[in-house]
Amino acid sequence: MTNPPLKIRIGVSDSEPDLRHALELKHKLSLYQVEGEIKYISHVNDIGKAHIASEFGMVMNPLTSALLNDDIDVVIYPLHETSIVQTEALKLCALSERADTSSQLLIRHDAFSPASDLRLKEKAVIGTQTSLEALQLKSLCPSALTCIVGQNTSHNLNMLQDGAIDALLISQVELHDSDQLLPDLHMVSLHPKELIPKPGQGVHCYQTHIENLRTRKIMKLVHNPDVAEETNIERKVLRLLGEIKSTSLGVYCKKDNNGNFHAVAVLANFPSEEIKKVSLSQSTSYQLAENIYQLLTNEL
User: Fold this and answer.
1) Other CB atoms within 10 A of residue 221 CB
2) pLDDT band at 43 (very low <50, low <70, confident <90, very high)
3) Residue 264 forms beta bridges with which residues?
4) Labelling 210: which of 45, 83, 129, 220 has CA 20 to 30 A away?
């Protein structure tokens, strides 16, 4: 008598990026003879910020509810959108590999100036998604002007092509995922050490019910421990500062081939529009997050 095939039920919303990540997980599981069954959960309005603790209890989206009700085995969230506070019933059981966390500055031809900072003409208007990105860009190019354009990539690219803005800051992942043609645009690549991303950005986390031991064991097969070492440091800095600082903090950590850890971080003070950038390298991860926290908060 043969054992029944292993199966993992993957919960997903109806958005294209979420489906793509679910299909990637399904493929990874198949390499270990595990069947991935994709189950659509409707009316998911706030993917990622699934469980934010407050004095009023837990705020949960339908994917989280499906996990708690045992309708699915695992859900996928962008790690940088996932709260550092987890409900006791759920557990992050694995992390994906890390995507390219660099940013791209797309510049209209009439705003391009090869000899200037970031190759931008003076007083060029740059569209950014967050205030933290805007302040970091201002530190790199003080003459530039910035405006917040929101999270809709297609809308932002249309604004750029229509001339409403001179340049657009976009993540490499968003640029890769976009199917829009980008004629007559110049591109300046910014390393994560120059434009520091949010803690955990570029990584997806897999969440399951804490009592679902079978799923937790299977998901270890696709877990990336090196990525976990890096993002644990990044998210611990956020934990030390408090989640209220999530919109004003950027942290990026990289472990090199010799096992050394290199971290950069930025903390914004929005009332004064000042930012503090720090960098630190250690041969071990021990106390690295705490040391970064101390550097960020000293005299800020």
Assistant:
1) 12
2) low
3) 252, 279
4) 45
**CB atoms near residue 183 (< 10 Å):** 6
82, 101 contact by CB (below 8 A): no
CA dihedral (192, 153, 75, 20) positive or negative: negative
CA angle 26, 30, 36 (to 5 degrees): 40
Residues 6+ apart with CB under 8 A from 230: 98, 253, 254, 255, 261
The pLDDT tens digits for 101-141 are: 999 999 999 999 999 999 999 999 999 999 999 999 999 99
Helix (H, G, I), strand (E, B) or coil at 73: coil
Burial class, 272, CB count within 10 angstroms (exposed 0-12 / middle 13-18 / buried 19+): exposed
User: How far apart (Å, rounded) are the C-alpha atoms in residues 204 and 212?
Assistant: 20
Dist CA 36 CA 34 (whole Å) = 6
Pairing of strands 125-128, 145-148: parallel
Given this structure, which CATH class describes domain 224-300?
alpha beta
Contact 295, 280 (CB under 8 A): yes
Report residue 4's pLDDT band, with 50, 70 and 90 as the boundaries: low
CATH fourth-level superfamily of 1-96+203-223? Periplasmic binding protein-like II (3.40.190.10)
Write the pLDDT tens digit of every residue in 177-195: 777 777 789 999 999 999 9
103-190 classified as CATH 3.40.190.10: yes
Count of alpha carbons within 13 Å of 102, Cβ hemisphere only?
11
| Domains in the chain: boundaries | 1-96+203-223, 103-190, 224-300
Computed over every residue of the chain, the mean pLDDT equals: 89
